[in-house]
# Entry
Amino acid sequence: MGMRAAVAGASGYAGGELLRLLLGHPRIEIGALTAGGNAGTRLGELQPHLAPLADRVLEATTPDALAGHDVVFLALPHGQSAALAARLGPDTLVVDCGADFRLADAGDWQRFYGTPHAGTWPYGLPELPGARERLRTARRIAVPGCYPTAATLAVLPALTAGLAEADVVVVAASGTSGAGRAPKPHLLGSEVMGSASVYGMAGTHRHTPEIAQNLTAAAGRPVRVSFTPMLVPMPRGILATCSAPARPGTTAARLRAAYQDAYAGEPFIRLLPEGGWPATSATLGANTVLVQAALDEAAGRIVAVAAIDNLTKGTAGGAVQSANIALGLPETTGLPTTGLAP
Amino acid sequence: MGMRAAVAGASGYAGGELLRLLLGHPRIEIGALTAGGNAGTRLGELQPHLAPLADRVLEATTPDALAGHDVVFLALPHGQSAALAARLGPDTLVVDCGADFRLADAGDWQRFYGTPHAGTWPYGLPELPGARERLRTARRIAVPGCYPTAATLAVLPALTAGLAEADVVVVAASGTSGAGRAPKPHLLGSEVMGSASVYGMAGTHRHTPEIAQNLTAAAGRPVRVSFTPMLVPMPRGILATCSAPARPGTTAARLRAAYQDAYAGEPFIRLLPEGGWPATSATLGANTVLVQAALDEAAGRIVAVAAIDNLTKGTAGGAVQSANIALGLPETTGLPTTGLAP
Amino acid sequence: MGMRAAVAGASGYAGGELLRLLLGHPRIEIGALTAGGNAGTRLGELQPHLAPLADRVLEATTPDALAGHDVVFLALPHGQSAALAARLGPDTLVVDCGADFRLADAGDWQRFYGTPHAGTWPYGLPELPGARERLRTARRIAVPGCYPTAATLAVLPALTAGLAEADVVVVAASGTSGAGRAPKPHLLGSEVMGSASVYGMAGTHRHTPEIAQNLTAAAGRPVRVSFTPMLVPMPRGILATCSAPARPGTTAARLRAAYQDAYAGEPFIRLLPEGGWPATSATLGANTVLVQAALDEAAGRIVAVAAIDNLTKGTAGGAVQSANIALGLPETTGLPTTGLAP
Amino acid sequence: MGMRAAVAGASGYAGGELLRLLLGHPRIEIGALTAGGNAGTRLGELQPHLAPLADRVLEATTPDALAGHDVVFLALPHGQSAALAARLGPDTLVVDCGADFRLADAGDWQRFYGTPHAGTWPYGLPELPGARERLRTARRIAVPGCYPTAATLAVLPALTAGLAEADVVVVAASGTSGAGRAPKPHLLGSEVMGSASVYGMAGTHRHTPEIAQNLTAAAGRPVRVSFTPMLVPMPRGILATCSAPARPGTTAARLRAAYQDAYAGEPFIRLLPEGGWPATSATLGANTVLVQAALDEAAGRIVAVAAIDNLTKGTAGGAVQSANIALGLPETTGLPTTGLAP
# Structure
């Protein structure tokens, strides 16, 4: 028997990716599709790649439109989720792709987002220790940010195995869809094609405290994070290069074993063979995380890299993965592990 | 009165960029153009953007063809420069865009290139302390690698001012022309468009010891370098994100002052206004280096970023800049500071 | 009960796309995977996006390796299919993604390919009049070329309805994967990014006679075709802009009606709403053809445009679609109509 | 002695390209820089590639700001030029990069732009027969559109030599900068990368009557034009593929001769060797037009292709070229013929 899902924010990139995945989901059927300024528009005009839904007309995002579904996915601008979620019944699974409920520390939220803290929901990264148990009974889920998904999964085993110092440097390149669909001058094709740029230096990007929160929980001690995001000329994909000082006694073999042990049973994480290098192209449209780690003895550092599709595992795929758990479905239901390449 | 330049390796990307710059150089005229496998071909077929040279036919790269010029630029595969240079008179200025003579340490060379060390020539990065004096009388110049140019200039002031620890993390994204023009499967357009990838992890890239050599000389103490190169979908450009632990007493103001002092008189380095973020698009075709530095107090690190065009300042522009010095010309002669955008 | 498919040429782009589709096909399981020079290699090294097949090792392409399957897909260089097919039993369905058996006219073949004509197989474009009947009993199928698929489906209704003169101009832009995976200098990322180029003028491209053959059959009279292919900087996609003089009495309404009638029942062709413009991005990874047609009264011409993914509907998707028919399966089995965007 | 130029609309792409060229112009110095909504902003924030002008602050676009210059370049939205030009003295050379004064036929203007016709100025395409004479004494110049520049120069010799029928089909691919810098959803990098799209069918694009006007004047009889523009994923460049029925008696040799004769003395037009194919990459940043023409005997058509940089020869370079003529300077002054590649 099928369940029904509503998607709020169906006209944006996260909403479009949710719909793409739900169209292939064998247990969830698509119910209400809502939007803000695009309410009243045929989906075919906004998301022409979703041919089976081309004639659906978007409704306005209201609690009434979203009521009566088993699961409601929110893909809204920051700050809009709390009021909506309060109007949805406590038995409805609400999965928020926005940032509002990700951070546990209200001070972090205030510092990076400048608005009052809405609260904290169970964090939808099943690969974190203990996360699956929490998600199984959750009715509210905060989907991780795209950079935190990649960076956390890159370095997690090195920290939990005690091989890395709690001082992590993350430099991550993202495709442009991570910046959303609202037209801004610096996101024009003319500006981004042919250019790589940093767009947040020295810990100013909002994903910084979220990465630190994840790594601190995993390591069991405060982890400092230096995070620099880069924009590169591709629509999708995140490549996160992370490093940390190796703790005494760390060897290449122990590092490899730590990653193998940590990710042996993970359905979406693929530790590359030794010597293999992650590329985002191998993850496009898939919920896959490609991971590689190596020890740089001369520099005394562990280097770990993860590649994901920012819209799939980094947003909508991660959302469906956590929703599957909370809905009692097999975690992998409806989630592709085959990418689109070249 | 003009001087004459020969370019060996005129069919590749570095050679093409040398010719593009020399076509606009008011004091140097273009003499012999040579190539390996492409000898006998009209340049118009290989470098159709160099319209004024379209009907020149490439000669084979031999000492005879290169003889009789004031300056010979070598843009050859690794390992070919030494034998050629030995046949060019000691008064001829020989500027090598390849790696053969960059490293001072024969062990480093052997470890990273696997062939006997050819020797060490004066290093053509005029912005390094003391470099201009050495270049003025040099008749042999080793042009820096593209990554080392960007990474060195990003962190140099932080190290020379004693604000950063000698433990530097470099993650740099490069356009594809840095990998040269020899056709390889992973460099096909179908492979690189839409993908970001790492292609050297944990200090295995050959530019690692060169970065360390530069920073060690600048800091006056051994600097450890963790270097990870990334390939991103653009033809040109390097964006190097570097960081190092801040030493005690470092403040944002002192950091800013160190960069302002170090680069105040540099004709090609532009320290961005505070809050500005480097983008490679602003450097395309120009000999410009865009630099920004910031202090991340929470992470305890200095973050410094440099953007360059890998073929201009990163190769051919750097070569012409050093050649200008060695030829007694004003250093900026013929070198564009205006880029091509969008 | 499942059927088994072999894929010969699994290391190229067409082979990879066949495998991507077959991984999602509910009635066909994947049997032998073979290659030429890449035999012996793990598929994970060559097609890292096909994670479920990462550990499969490619066999050499031999009749023995391909024997014993219900269907054999050939994705080989021109000229290799005939000998292989002759060694596969007459009851095995052989679907050739190459050009060898597409042309009915041996003179055309000789003129454009310069080798002896191998023969003619039933042509795998089910949307052509009468094609489905022929494919139902076929055991040998020639998959259309990517340009012919797009161009034929763009203008077909205008010709069959007698609205267009038999004098068609086709200008079509293709992504780079259409040129295959063999590394060639002009296909390097550095060359193709930032550039649009023609690469066949005045009817010299090999797909010219194939387009003419299709349109001539559809129109029932000889159709002249002027075809110009362009290479544009994207990995996938073909956008074919076609036009022909409008015959007397043609109106916008009659033109629209002709397209609606022709494509009303087609599962993979989507005639855009009036005023809508096809974009290849909406077809990526899908077997979809986006079509639009309009009458230019001032110029006296019908203009018709089709957008496809060259590897899906243009190659592997078309192959699976025809194979479904020949295997007695529903034509749409396993073929996505949802694309990957952005 | 130098002349002074003002640029109105210095914050857009056309304005930026004008400034890039003027920075390299030996006889014109840069005076006032004005903008609309961006008045008051440092140019370094808007055009970071123009390093030598980084600290200039944009003024508001007013007649007073533009007064007192030898030449005023207007790079403004449609409809704003007439009022400004009326306030600039009749001896000031005013060069309008906008469309307002290009069309001779008020009905065409009204039909395609929907506003009253502002008038007609001498048309700044020096390569048209008789144009240089008219431009020499002009004080008002209408710079051609980018598509009309490419399409006109592609087919001009075939028409003036009487080899082609007056029935021309133009399909042209453009980079995204042709659509300007105002942020619109369909111009986002996420939308344009990886996609080719048509964006005007059946003669609806505003450049259609301008192409027809040029070709009609050249042919001396009414020329019908079918024009389809395509957007492809690159920042710059136009590739125009044009064709027309060959008139009786046309041979490949006569066609070649017609192009050689027509363009032998043209400083910016390069007829490619026979068999060569134009690519936009060879024109980037240069005022070059690459042209090729061939006879398709089977189709009975002449096919002619031109590649340009839409911002250089297609806009700002064309503007400077015509201004040079009107200012009594050598036509090629300050205009690059060397492109930036790869």
Notes: Chain B is about 30% helix and 20% strand. Chain B touches chain C through 20 residues (CB under 8 Å). Chain B has a mean pLDDT of 96.
